[in-house]
Predict the structure.
Amino acid sequence: MSQAVPAGQPSLSAARHLDMVALRDALHAEWTKLRTIAGPAWLLVGTVAATLAVSAAATAAARCPSGTACPVDTTKLSLTGIQAGQAVVAILAVLAISGEYSTGMIRITLAAMPHRSVVLAAKAVILAALVLAAGAIAVGGSVLAGRILLPGHGFTVARGFPLESLADGPTLRAAAGSVLYLVLIALLSLGIATLIRDSAAAIGVVLGLLYLSPIILGVVTDPVWSHRFERYAPMSAGLTIQDTTSLRGLAISPWGGLGVLAAWAAAALLAGGLLLRWRDA
Amino acid sequence: MTAGTVTPHQPDQQTGRDGFAPLLRAEWTKFRTVRGWVIGMIVAVLVMLGLGLFAAGASSSSCQSASGAPGQTSHACGGTIYPVGPGGEPVTDNFYFVRQPLAGNGSITVRITSLTGLLPPADGNVPGGPNAPIDTRPGLVPWAKAGVIISGGTTPGSAYAAMMVTADHGVRLQDNYTSDTAGLPGAVSAASPRWLRLTRSGGTITGYDSADGTHWTQVGTVHLAGLPSTVQAGMFAASPAWQSISQNFGGGENGMIAPSQDTAVFDQLSRSGTWPSGAWTGDYLDAAGGSGIGEFHQAGGRFTVTGSGDIAPVVPGQAGDVGTTVTQHLIGTFAGLIAVIVVATMFITAEYRRGLIRVTLTASPRRGRVLAAKAVVIGAVAFVAGLVAAAAAVIFGAALAHARGSYVYPVPWPTELRMVIGTGALIAVTAVLAVALGTVLRRSAAAVTLVIVAIVLPYILGAASVLPVGAADWLLRITPAAAFAVQQATPQYQQVTAIYSPNSGFFPLAPWAGFAVLCGYAALALGLAVVLLRRRDA
């Protein structure tokens, strides 16, 4: 926010006040842009629907036949849908900035608000708030689906699978962390889209970055390399926040994993913000 | 893809029939003159190759080649050496063989009255060292086998044909490791013995079975290429390792594996042809040069043969497995696909964004043909890119793995060819699907995401994630990701007990059937795109 202050400014506090006003106006503008077109609303609905559908399907497909040991992390299982929901979040976040480039709207936006970092910050704030709300609904619904479906498939209290409940510490951490995961994915996507500008290329890069790590982990047998992927790849590291059993075997702690994803998102936003300031729109 | 001279006007004779070739050339010109798209395709090839080489390299560094002899390509980590069968596939060729040479044509007939065996303890813990007896509990693994065999020699991987009784699968005629034909059903016992006969005539071996020794049924005829004039023939016993398979969620599967053994009683031996008059030779054939469980006793016309091991193809992904498969060298397909999907979608959505579509449709008002030309051009480009990248990944991946002392499961060349061509076709059809969905949705981000999620996410959820095997199988049957079956290196063998899950590289559909699922989606999307393109205003 340390924009070059126009020459006639009387004091620093007044400049800061102006910055705050600029941010407030920018937030208002971004909110109006997202609110008044149909796309974002549908994409938020799509995020909830995709997450819920895949979570419920995964939970419904799981079975624990009597007489067999089922080493299943039921909390992680009932949050499987995040892996699908994040793709819709990525579209929403990419379109928030690429949409402006494809229509040329970005030139009007930047003419109206020359403080480019403020524009990006406003987009990030609005996006984070929207994804936080949609993510909370999606995750809450997924946990509820697990609570309803799992006991009927052999994952009963008697066999050591407590009913899914947000009152349970690790489950709450996994659920709240999954919402934050979606928010961080949105910010990462926003940063990458600001870098790349074209929506198709940006979405390809985002989904490649996310989905390739679990695929590569499936074939790499070298323990050093799989450890690196589990620790530092955005999706693999970030999703450790969903683990509630055998935490000692994880390559990275749950909050540490989410921190790695946060670092990816921050780096992408920073790089995007710098290029936004340096490049011609 | 014609690199001919560009003429500004169409020849007169083509103006009347609105030829397809000019449309193709128009679309090809559009593709090759957008630098980003050409770069995107090159990126697709490079990431496919790069990731494939990474997978080949990063899967082998845990493996230290002790002998380090260059050119010793069948060397594997941990001392495992898989001989290669006549079809080019890796095989297990360990069994107890009671044999005599048979010169020229002839036949061998026996009766089997009993097949019994010993299994390791149910928890899989074999007490003592490798030579400790496994005398813990009686029982047979399902594919414990014993019978008569005619083999090209005692070299591991020799051509053979065998008639056998099995524990749970009745009488079988098996040959050259991969083929398996069913004969009389039911288990063998003193009350219900089985008569088996093999006759050799040149390279042709015919197997017969009978329940009473008088009424014979021909089970099958096999042709063994390159069978020497003098073959090794006789009785054998083999019992594959006992496996306890517990299916995990998330972590794949836990396989416990321990040796088992079986004992068969043979009598009523009769032979025709030129056999030596001396005694029978009994030895345990082991490709690794080690010693296995096996012995035989002869009392009058009665032979009791005990053996372990198996004569069967090796299935990658079994417990204790160390090698990599060619499929793993093609893992970069996913990254390449994403790049191709982006380019293919933009090939149509860029026209909408720039308004070029109105010019395109004014120039050639038959809209279906325009879309067909786009699909052909992008499909052809994607096919070439995929083919080049897949061929390079397979060739250089194997070279890299060998150079690092890692074992790569050998694959017969027709399979390898199918995997490479199939990968190119998979990428081509996905590109067509992307063009079609780009036409339907007109928005790049939505179309790109839909195609990526449809083809990549089912694979992740099915093959590398928490879903149980049943659900994973269904995902890889009904979604476009079914097409990855073209990259399956090893077929499923009914005569080999293994975990055939997507997790270990086995797809629920046959290679080209899985590919047909993707083609079905592409055809549906293309049909919908043509209808919408005709009806909607551009």
Summary: Residues 107 and 523 of chain B are 56 Å apart (CA to CA). Residues 367-403 of chain B form the longest helix (37 residues).
